[in-house]
Amino acid sequence: MNVFLAALNSVVPHFRVKGDTLLVSQGHPFNRVRIDLREVAAYKLPGPAAIRLRLFRDRWMSLSTEGFRPSEVAALCALLNRQQRQNHQKHELQA
Q1: What is the CATH number of domain 3-94?
Q2: Rounded-to-integer distance, Cα 86 and Cα 69, Å
């Protein structure tokens, strides 16, 4: 990684939330994966450098948390926990 990217990684957040959309960096701060938070069914952390996410009626997907700061990982997990509970409550009410 060059000096510019190292400096950028230390300042730029690795994930952002815009409305109901979660934007997660994958390797480069400007290369982001878009995820609809209203569709989050489950997530798990299989290791310190990855997070696995499953959307309703979809397969598990792996996202890299390489370069994330520990506070970012904790904040992302808290967000996904809250969203997962909300989504399951909505789907139970609809069924």
Answers
A1: 2.30.29
A2: 26
39: its two tokens = 């569709």
The Cα-based distances of 79 to 4, 13, 25, 93 in angstroms read 29, 15, 16, 21
Rounded Cα distance between 41 and 81, Å, is: 10
What does the pLDDT profile of the chain (95 residues) look like in tens digits?
577 766 766 677 888 899 999 999 876 667 789 999 999 999 999 988 899 999 998 999 999 888 888 899 999 999 999 999 999 888 777 76
Question: How far apart (Å, rounded) are the C-alpha atoms in residues 72 and 27?
Answer: 15
